[in-house]
Amino acid sequence: LGFKGVCLVFTIGRNKEAIDASGGNGAVVLTVSDRTGESGEPITALTMTGGALARVYTSADEPTLTLELGSADVKLDTGALGEVLNHVNSLDEEITVTVEPIDENQLSMEQQIALNQEKVSMVISATMTCGNTTISDFGRGTVTVSIPFTVKAPATIEEHSLWYIADNGTMEELSYEYVDGRMVTVMEHFSEYVILHNCEHEWKDATCTDPKTCGKCGETEGEPLGHKWTDATCTTPKTCSVCGETEGEALDHKWNDATCTEPKTCSVCGETEGEALGHKWNDATCTEPKTCSV
User: I need a labelling partner for 183 at 20 to 30 A (CA). Which of 167, 176, 195, 259 fits?
Assistant: First the structure.
């Protein structure tokens, strides 16, 4: 159960001290040590026996049970404890509570369609089993779930909402409090839940390579502008006139040799190099003027 099968099993004997330490007020808290398994992943499930749960239920007039996992804290009130006990057939029967983040692709097709246009920050699966029976409804009881959730700046917690999502894609918004980095909500049943980011976008203009983008959540709109290329020249490669990005190499000069009156000259751009060669004069004769031999 949970990540990589990590699960702790609590039995009546191992919980006796925790239950007795409640001082008779019935507020029993079971904490999973450092909340992580050997792999470092958070522990997402806890299993106890029906006998352990019965001991909690009979410890006070209005008992509560809080399970502190790596993935969430789960607090069952008196009504929820009683509803769960209604499903217990023996003291040795195992009751497992699992709260874990899951991928969107693990949801039903209807759920995925309902979330198609949403910015999903987290999907949470909350389940409880008693033997081979899945318990999803807690009757008149409630379960308070506290989920670690880090808001990535510059987004704010106010931009996030928590929703119950049914198998058929129907969604219902839940109220929550944000306390010490945790989203705390009251659930009447276990199912799938999603945290949505309803961002008040702060748009950055599109560039040659990136579409219009929200600086807070990363959502995009439209398409990149694309480069506006100017052709390569003898000395510069093909270059975007907007962002300055280059592609390929410069063409290099196509030199014409220097002449008597012109230096070495590029036939493409007209750039020159060096000096003109100068004339090589032959002296004038009786019949010919002074003449360049080149």
Answer: 167
